[in-house]
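Weekend entry, working from home. Most of the wet-lab plans are on hold until the incubator is repaired, so I used the time to fold the two sequences that have been sitting in the queue since the last round of cloning. Logging both here for the record. First:
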Amino acid sequence: MIAHVLARLAAQVGEVLINANQNLDRYRALGYPVVPDAVGGFAGPLAGLHAGMMLARHELVVTAPCDSPFLPPDLVARLSAGLAAHGAQLAVAKTFDQPHPVFALVRRDVLPDLAAFLVGGGRKIDAWYAALRVVEVAFDDEADAFRNINTAGELADAESK
């Protein structure tokens, strides 16, 4: 699955970091730096974002899960446009009434806020970003791009449609 995500995402960014806490050698074999969580206890997607933001060299960091292989080829451009147009700190993809907070573009200068949230035991993405200037960017035209694929069979089925 991750190979599909990397194929779409790498073309949109200047740097790729993979967050993983298991099977590190398998992820390293993909040719990108692998960053484990700095926060213990498998704290979820926010811990992965935190780890990536700590090492990223760019002002903006995009996050996408490895189980959504059909992410839009213009994900970063559209999130970036929304971020700039609204002076936001974080842009989140949204389809119709459903936000997809693991598809987000985040300003690195919110790293101290994220670190404090995690140290305080926070784990819910929407609870963290509720205190930030957030813009939800509509992707209604690509709603299927955000679906979750968990098996090779589901992937084959989705690709055949």
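Second, folded right after the first finished:
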Amino acid sequence: MIITRRDFLKTSATGVAGTFLASKLMAADAVAAKPGIRISARHFSGSFADAKKAGMEGVEIGVGGAADKLNITDPAARQKYKDMIKDTGIVVSSLSMDLMNGHPTGTDPMAPAWLAQTVEAAGDLGAAGILLPFFGKAHLLDEKKEFKKEAAAGLVSRLKEIAPAAKKAGVVIGVECTLSAKQFLDLLDRVGSDSIGAYYDTGNSTGAGLDVPGDIRALKGRLAMIHFKDGGSYLGEGKVKMEPVAEALKAIDYKGWIVLETSCPSKNTVADCKRNGDYIRKLMGI
């Protein structure tokens, strides 16, 4: 669970992903006085000012494409983000390693270096988490929806290696894949670190036929972050049943980031993001 700034200063980590999210969030003056759920979006990595106009509190940014050194390692690029944070009060909620869909974490020889680079960058930028995705070539499940043994074993090994650095940086690495809660828990238990959690996606999981509210409840204390997404629809108007999702998040007392990975039906990113953000606040009572 998330703890208050005062409690955090008095206590050590409690062994759940939300604690580390809180430690990084509360380190930023812009959000130190705002405990509870916060809303971020993937749309605004180049303009934190637009994110602010849309009512966001954070932005999820990408780390760049495959290279010996990821773009996020560039001091000039990081300084640009730091300047935007200072100017707007909008923080970096998380870093997204989209390149890993084409370079499976469990088997690609560059994966350990990229993970280390991203953890270091997340710590420097004050980000709470890292999105580590497993889709396409990197999907963890086979056609029978069972774990690919080699991919899963390699992933567990490499997550164990990076977990101490993530813990030191106060960052939670969130695994994103269309896994059931049972499969997530199996994977996370094998890693055995509270610096590794589940990055759950409501849209992807609904599309995969999973029990989204049930999964959220089962993942209590293990959610790194959560994506709100519903195809080409505004939240609340598509296939994802948002009321049960909200009830499940309230039931587990979730206090982390909700990150919008939503579409823009009107083609006005700021307006559509604000609409979805306002919907979430009403839905969640925040």
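Plan for Monday: verify the second prediction. Residues 149-169 form the longest helix (21 residues).
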